[in-house]
Amino acid sequence: MSAQLPLHAMLADPAMAGAYFVDRRERDAYVEGAGRLEFACATIDFSGCTGKADALGRFAQALRLPEWFGHNWDALADCLADLSWMPAGGYLLLLEDTAAWRAADREGFDIAIEVLEQAAEGWKAERVPFWALMLVEDPFAD
User: Fold this and answer.
1) Is 88 a residue whose pLDDT tops 60?
2) Count of alpha carbons within 13 angstroms of residue 19, beta-carbon side
3) pLDDT band at 139 (very low <50, low <70, confident <90, very high)
4) CB 109 within 8 A of CB 101
5) DSSP per-residue string spanning 28-85
6) Strand partners of residue 91
7) Is the pLDDT of residue 5 over 70?
């Protein structure tokens, strides 16, 4: 019998944070865990997303990115490395309904995942958990 780490304890650990595909049915448990830790939590809906410009606009709106956001991947990386306009002890981004975006712009989707993973790595150095979860039907298919 193995002891399983409670979800909120896992979320609190910056070393474990990153960009992951998770079962969408676990969404509420992650939100509850993040709330328990007083993390900043944002849901980004990508249903019907058509490509890079659309995706970046959705990040900008959901995260209330500053006016200086340049609507490109480098600017998104810069904003995610800063987040001074939403100070918190940790961050949880929930990316919902990404299938259409992935189908329309697989390259852009993959770049976004890299940007999110780099942000998580940067926050680890600050000992701040940064989670980006792609909520999918079957996380093992991705």
Assistant:
1) yes
2) 17
3) low
4) yes
5) HHHHHHHHHTT-EEEEEE-TT--SHHHHHHHHHHHHT--TT--SSHHHHHHHHHH-TT
6) 40, 130
7) no
- What is the C-alpha to C-alpha distance for residues 118 and 100, in angstroms, rounded to an integer? 24
Q: What is the pLDDT of residue 57?
A: 97
| Tokens representing residue 16 in the block | 């474990």
Q: Whats the size of the chain, residue-wise?
A: 142
Which residues, in sequence order, are CB contacts of 125 under 8 Å at separation 6+?
A: none
Phi, psi angles (nearest 5°) of residue 130 = -130, 115
By CB atoms closer than 10 A (0-12, 13-18, 19+), residue 63 is buried
Identity of residue 108? G
pTM of full prediction above 0.90: yes
Is 92 within 8 Å of 41 (Cβ atoms)? yes
**What residues contact residue 70 under an 8 Å CB cut-off, 6+ apart?**
none
Q: Is 105 helix (H, G, I), strand (E, B) or coil?
A: coil
When pLDDT is averaged across residues 114-141 and rounded to a whole number, the result is 93
Spatial contact of 88 and 68, defined as CB atoms under 8 Å apart: no
